[in-house]
Amino acid sequence: MSRRYSCTLYRVTYTLHMPNARNNLGDFGEQAAAAHLMKRGYVLLARKWRCAAGEIDLLMHDGSTLVFVEVRTRRGDLLGMAEESVGRAKQAKLIALAYAYLEAAGAPNELPWRIDVVALNIDRTGRVARLRHIRDAVEET
Known about the structure:
alpha+beta, Trna Endonuclease, Chain: A, domain 1, five-stranded mixed sheet, about 25% helix
């Protein structure tokens, strides 16, 4: 991604290239979330599972339960807390992705599963200022 900026004080135009800034933040959040959950006994099965419908950030086991983990990472909190960005449309997409994975994996119907959200806010120094794990964050209605 690149953005073109112009300065009103000086007649200068420059282009700022930020090819992976957003991806790097997301990857950092996913690594922090995975580490946090593994410290609590979860087992990591996969990162960034993809299908035509989208991507599941983390697939984990919590005991015998399959857990689909959506990781939301934000710099600071000016735009609100990271978990606030999981609206109804995103929740519906996560449910569709969970079913897509279950079908693709040939999972038995009785397999217990849930969707969790791990929300991280990163401070100016790049450290995790806040991490919140929300179990059963997304449920079918």
